[in-house]
Amino acid sequence: MTATAAWGATAPDSGLNPLTIDRRALRDEDVAIDIAYCGVCHSDLHVARNDWGRSNYPFVPGHEIVGTVREVGAGVTRFKVGDRVAIGTVVDSCRRCDACLDHEENYCREGVTGTYNAKDRIDGTPTYGGYSAAIVVAEPYVLKVPDALDMAAAAPLLCAGITTYSPLRNWNVGPGSNVGVIGLGGLGHMGVKFAKALGAEVTMITTSPAKGEDARLLGADHVLVSTDKAAMTAANRSFDFLLDTIPVQHDVTPYLMLLDRKGTLCLVGMIDKMPTFHTGLLLGGQKAVSGSGVGGIAQTQEMLDFCADKGIVAEIEMIRMDEINHAWERMEKADVKYRFVIDMASL
Amino acid sequence: MTATAAWGATAPDSGLNPLTIDRRALRDEDVAIDIAYCGVCHSDLHVARNDWGRSNYPFVPGHEIVGTVREVGAGVTRFKVGDRVAIGTVVDSCRRCDACLDHEENYCREGVTGTYNAKDRIDGTPTYGGYSAAIVVAEPYVLKVPDALDMAAAAPLLCAGITTYSPLRNWNVGPGSNVGVIGLGGLGHMGVKFAKALGAEVTMITTSPAKGEDARLLGADHVLVSTDKAAMTAANRSFDFLLDTIPVQHDVTPYLMLLDRKGTLCLVGMIDKMPTFHTGLLLGGQKAVSGSGVGGIAQTQEMLDFCADKGIVAEIEMIRMDEINHAWERMEKADVKYRFVIDMASL
């Protein structure tokens, strides 16, 4: 394992050769996957830069993985060679805590094994992600990709998709819900598609009128430009659920004012210190600020099946592996509609 | 109306003579009530001091009112002279918005008419509260006091009671719920009683071991002393619902760490700027910070009936009207178990 790779320039000593990286020998429950596509998530860059102080180098990013089964272990029953499969952000968990037994492995009481930058629970070796030719994952954490889905455009569903689908489902968004999606990026564009497909009335809330028009093309019924004070006042106390996808620290006060009685603002992008807000905004109507992080394996499969049923995939821009550093730069400037996906044939 | 009253020393120009205060002539829907007892709420002092910047002087505090019907208007159907009745924090609302139609008048879209320091919706005269001999209130905002309840000890149910009952009910606390009540005062002691009566497992969370023991007498199953780091760590991620009754600004981080997956911390005491916390505490398990403010008339009646059924009243210390200033001083030091109630016979 050497530490020079295409993305090494951005992330010092962060890479391994994605073609020659060691993957573990198949255990009975393992599925070996040839990776076809991998989505580019903002988390990949955060870890490359050690923004969260938990990075272990060298590492291989990528947790929006789609490919085909190359080989299965002796105990594997649900998959066979050639099946279209996917891997998200979680490749193992304790499998016995209440969260795991409730199919919310993402909230495992003992902590999940992340698809990269974690340690295998059995032998302690590092986990390496999907910017790579192949990956080996235990069967319970492998997802089926329905035939109806384009493989490349399905890749971002594994993180951006489930991160937005899970809170919309768990807060019972559906017909009659007045939903606002705050921020139009990788997560936000999926939030609009899902909220609409679930039957809600959907408003894109954005600083940019142009993004608002883009959101209409994705299915948003309305656009609310957050810098327009009159429009924000008119929308006061009108939303049942706000999906806040803004990935940087921001004041939630203007959005809390949009919540209707018993409404919830759900954070899925801001992993940071919460700026202050007045608690009266919550007390005056039993309102809540919540958060959500990806989703369990069963719900991720439900989401993929829902996408197949509704004809939903991510909007993507395909890149070659050697374009990743430029893609990361553009992602930081939100210069992508709406998710980069790496074509692993370019490795 | 003159401006000298017993509590005037604490609240400059805040009083009216509670014996001679003008009450409006009965409208068809009105109920005139001889006040027997009035609970002393921390809000009374906040308004007396203009802590919230919205006080109109002179004013008469008091919104935990119990008494008997003296006279009814021509259109009143549910009450007759001599009935035991109660008035809480709300004496009118728009009666036509979605909140009012949903029996959540407390969250009226046009704003409620408070029991004191507000203006009557019809003639614009000031509303005066329960530190007084009598009050006139429209029938839809008058509550029945079940025979089983002691009238004096029922008074605090009208604010401290419903403020804690409403969130416990609306967040579906019941058998199987692991509930923590944070802070043991007027609200907290009702929170413990209600959570227990609803069937939950109840923990008093307090800085004071002595208060913990007091809470056991009220029905708490467990005590968690929040300054005991080992105990707090052991309780990490174990509560479904936390009722936070602390009435002053405080850091919620130690409490958010106690929330289990999908758990909610509900603020009912802190009306202030929220100190920062890390959003990861919400994202890691779809958790929420919420708030709640009193309750609707129907739910308040439900609460009174529940109290009668379960044998619940507030723990009170009875005072005379001329002791109110000293009582306010003691209340500020939390030197009361757990609610002062004014005996209006002392007027």
TrEMBL record, chains A, B:
Residues 14-342 form the Enoyl reductase (ER) domain. Its cofactor is Zn(2+). The keyword Ubl conjugation does not apply. It comes from the Bacteria. GO terms for molecular function: alcohol dehydrogenase (NADP+) activity; zinc ion binding. Keywords: Metal-binding, Oxidoreductase, Zinc. InterPro entries: ADH-like_C (IPR013149), ADH-like_N (IPR013154), ADH_Zn_CS (IPR002328), CAD-like (IPR047109), D-isomer_DH_CS1 (IPR029752), ER (IPR020843), GroES-like_sf (IPR011032), NAD(P)-bd_dom_sf (IPR036291). It holds the Pfam family ADH_zinc_N. PANTHER family: ALDEHYDE REDUCTASE. Belongs to the zinc-containing alcohol dehydrogenase family. This is Putative zinc-type alcohol dehydrogenase-like protein.
